[in-house]
Amino acid sequence: MATRVDPAERLLDLLIALRHAQGRMTKADIRASVNGYRDAASDAAFERMFERDKDLLRQLGVPIITDVDPVHEDAVGYRLDTADYSLPEVSFTAAEIGVLSLAATVWQDAHLHGSARRGLTKLRAVAAGAEPDDHLGVALRVQPAETALGPLLDAIGSRQAVTFTYRAASTGEESRRRVQPWRLLSRDRGWYLVGHDVDRDAPRVFRLSRVVGAVRPTGPTGAFEVPEHDPQELLALGAGSGVRAVLAVLPERAAALRARAVEERGERDGRTVLVVETDDAGALAAEVASYGAAVLVLDPPELRESVLERLRAAAALGEGNRG
């Protein structure tokens, strides 16, 4: 019994055959050489499969040309328009590759890390004079949201609703949410999902760091249309009450906080006093705590206490390990 060939595999084989053909391919050539066509039950079945695959490739932007023999008009063949199919030569300066290298570091902890690194490696291969280490010491970082990012990207692409448990920022209460996902946006070193909350029948913004457990797709694909919105307007939907933090930072420390500061208030006891604004006090507390004694919270008191709680927990953990 013949093994059934997956339609996606057959489509790829057709593209490969056309790409490597020396000239045009007749239907007989295609049926004989492309995996999946040889075992067609009848000529009519082959015709249906081939026409469907050919139309799909054209929809995907593959320029398939119907080539008729000028002498024998009934001899119809197919080939790729290589001029339209091939990409132009890619060229980047060393400075441009440096910027792309810096951008790729955003994904180093996230779901797309592998794709970003592979793409960057290919770009470096075609750019002369670009050194991988040109921008060491400078890093753009976005919190990873490892478990939620991948499923949400898939759901957005297929326009499929998702369900997940979400922890409210103000009360810490957890609730089940059903959402039609529209966009994933990054702000303030974190990821946000913008979508339509089905139960509340209104647009909502969800910070991925507050998603608890797995994100699960529900219902059919293609179930909704994504409206056109300005990204900043979308994020403004969930802005809520922001936190204006006053921090005292040791010289040459906490470069990421310095870069995001909206105000600098001079020096205090040998430290630079900075003002940083955020919509997620918990994320900022975790970041400040990671700098240890290099960053002190002067205001607000709630943020200072949140940082101290994290430092006490880390110290207790260290004591436990020594014991």
Shape: elongated
Strand content: 25-35%
Major sheet: arrangement of strands: 7-6-5-4-8
How would you spell out the order of helices and strands? Answer: HEHHEEHHHHEEEEEHEHEEHEH
Rounded radius of gyration (Å): 28 Å
Average residue pLDDT:
79
Category by helix and strand content? alpha+beta
Low-pLDDT segments = 132-145
Major sheet summary line: 5 strands, antiparallel
Total number of strands = 12
How large is the count of helical segments?
A: 11
Terminal CA distance: 66 Å
Q: Helix coverage percent of residues? A: 25-40%
List keywords for this structure.
38% helix; 323 residues; 11 helices; 12 strands
Provide an overview of this structure.
With 323 residues, this protein is of the alpha+beta class. It is built from eleven helices and twelve strands. The strands form three sheets. It has a five-stranded antiparallel beta sheet with strand order 7-6-5-4-8. Strands 10-11-9-12 form a four-stranded antiparallel beta sheet. α5 (94-104) runs antiparallel to α6. The protein is elongated and about 90 Å long. The termini are far apart.
